[in-house]
Amino acid sequence: MTLDPRGRRAAQALLQAAEGLGPAPDLARLRRRRRRRAARRAGLAALAVTVAAAVLWQALAPSGGPDGTRPLALPGVPGLDGHVRDAIPTGRAAGTDLVAGPDAVWVLNRSRPPDQDQLVRVDPATDRVVARIPVGRGALRVAVGDGSVWVLRATSGRVDLVQVDPATNRVVKTSPPLGATSRRDRGVTERLLVAGRVVWAVTGAGVLRYDPAAGAVVEVAGPERVGPLSGLAVAGGSIWVVSGMVVFKLRPGDGTVLQSDAPKELTPMIPSGLAAGAGSLWVAGSGRLARLDAVTGRVAAVFRAGPGVATVAGDRRNVVGAGGKALYLIDPAANRVRAAVPLPQLGAVAVGGGAVWVTDEPRGRLLRVDPGP
Amino acid sequence: MADPGEAAVVRLPERFEAFYEREYHRVLGFAYAVAGSWEAAEDATQEAFLRAHRDWQRVGHYDQPGAWVRRVAANLAVSTFRRALAEARAVVRLAARRQPDPPLHAEALDFWRAVRSLPARQRQAIALFYLEGWPTAEIARFLGCTETTVRGHLHRGRATLARRLGEDRGGAP
Asked: A161, A132, A28, A165: which is closest to B58 by C-alpha?
């Protein structure tokens, strides 16, 4: 007797047994049952919260101030470093990208087929997911600017952009193909940013400039690719790109290379990240951060940030390095690490809306980290 | 969204009700195969179809909405917490239960018990292979891996099953 006939008999028997449980239940009845269960669960949750609040009150009240009261500090997330203020369920993903602004944090969740990739909008005021927008497949990067959210996709070696209107949380347009990307590069070199009314993308094909108003894609002649393209940022009124050890400064109007320099101070680093923050340009790599003048590109400082630091993110006030399984909060006034925040997993990192945001892909959540004073 | 310059092929989703009627028992069988409990399997299957119904505008456009529902049902069915909850509910409403678990003859019971003893990915690959008769390419899409990996799962899974059940392995893959 062989395994296959037995397997087929067992499969047949199982399907018959499933049918023996009766016809597929009425959908309306299922929905009613689910609503009842949800209501019961909500009741139990409310009860649990009340009990927990009472216990907490009991625990805090005896050690209160002279008048017997004390303000309740915002609790952190149990089991995580105290800087982590909230964990927002955004959904498990095979990979993520992230961009943060004052009104919204956008998490790009890459899914495994057959599911579509999803753009998840989080309200930083309430830390709640307010929209989930399907954006097709092959999504790699997200950027915001000029009143739109942009998603860079690479499917079958071709790159395009999806434009999302944040007012309606809907996809409004797909760009013409921007060029090709190789399988080797896919998901590694791609970068995206919006500067003024122009969308800039780094792909395996090089640096591309897309003007949505004209619908025109222009491949920027420079910078020549002298090594892995590892960053794209806008600072000091210019576009900055890092390729290998060379830092390129481009004119935003037409992408002309204004300056290319391989600062000797970057020699101990293999650059892997680039960002604008606290009025400067920051290069990350090999556990170090380098601070560059946003106008001249001159290196002002290089310092050790933390083991494995390979990514950097920032906004007007804050700069963070990330690598290994930790986030490093930087003091831009002193060019040193102010605090290290250990995390269970490090996905994409962004700064904005008064917080540092990190995706925890295996657990499908977005962590809100307090950047401190 | 079709790319400019490409002929857009629009696949209209079938009616959810037709999809539900056709797939319900097959998904239920698959959920039982991976979970080993009819209560957990029914609960997970119904929840998976409710989710598919809620998002049918999206799910209905997938190439294989059936694969999506199976994946959701399998994930829900093997969730320990959810399984415990489903079984606890079953105990509560035992008296009012419309009928006992459907009988499965000893040979089938042994077979599916042996399948459930396999690692998760092998278990799902084997269940889809025998229950649905899916080709390796389709199983690969379901598991999100390559066909070579699926062939490895099937080869190792069937070797283990044959050893545990005292059977010859038979044909490919």
From this structure: A132
- CA torsion, ordered A132, A133, A137, A138, to nearest 10 deg: -80
Give the range of the structural domain holding residue B135, as residue numbers without chain letter: 104-173
Chain A closest-CA separation from residue B144 CA (Å): 6
Pairing between strand A128-134 and A118-123? antiparallel
Decide if B55 touches A, using CB distance below 8 A.
Answer: no
* A1 contacts in chain B (CB < 8 Å): 167-168
Q: Dihedral, CA atoms, B163, B167, B171, B173, nearest 10 degrees? A: -30
| A21 with B158: Cβ contact below 8 A | no
The answer, yes or no, to whether residue B21 has pLDDT greater than 50, is: yes
CA-CA distance, A250 to A193, in Å (whole number)?
Answer: 14
Identify all chain B residues contacting A158, using CB atoms and an 8 Å cutoff: 3
Domain locations along chain A: 22-73, 231-342
Check whether the bond before A23 is cis (ω within 30° of 0).
no
Do residues B134 and B172 both lie within one domain?
Answer: yes
Q: How many domains is chain B built from?
A: 2
Q: Which of B49, B64, B98 sits opposite A114 (nearest CB)?
A: B64
Mark whether B136 and B67 lie in a shared domain. Answer: no
ipTM tops the 0.90 cut = no
Q: Which of A112, A118, A135, A114 is nearest to B63 (CA)?
A: A114
CB–CB contacts below 8 A, A to B: 119
pLDDT tens string A327-373: 999 999 999 999 999 998 888 999 998 899 999 988 899 999 988 77
- Provide the token pair at A64: 């209160």
- Give the CATH number of the domain where residue B160 resides: 1.10.10.10
Top-confidence range, A31-35, A69-73, A304-308, B25-29: B25-29
Are residue B75 and residue B153 in the same domain, yes or no?
A: no
- Choose among A95, A89, A127, A126: nearest CA to A108: A95
Rounded distance, CA A362 to CA B6, Å? 36
- Could you tell me which residue, A47 or B152, shows the higher pLDDT? B152
Distance, CA of A164 to CA of A169 (rounded, Å)? 6
Residues B76 and B132 in one domain: no
Q: What confidence tens digit (pLDDT) does each residue in A164-206 have?
A: 999 999 999 998 887 766 555 555 567 888 888 889 888 776 7
**R_g of chain A computed on alpha carbons:** 25
B38 contacts in chain A (CB < 8 Å)? 21
Mark whether B162 and B82 lie in a shared domain: no
Closest residue by Cα to residue B144 from B40, B71, B56: B71
Architecture of domain A231-342: 7 Propeller (2.130)
Question: Is B109 inside any structural domain?
Answer: yes
Residue B4 lies in a domain: no
- The pTM of the whole model exceeds 0.80: no
Contact residues of A toward B, CB < 8 A:
1-11, 13-22, 24-25, 27, 30-31, 34, 94, 112-116, 134, 136, 158, 160, 162, 171, 174, 176-177
List, for residues B55-81, the tens digit of each pLDDT value.
888 888 888 899 999 999 988 887 755
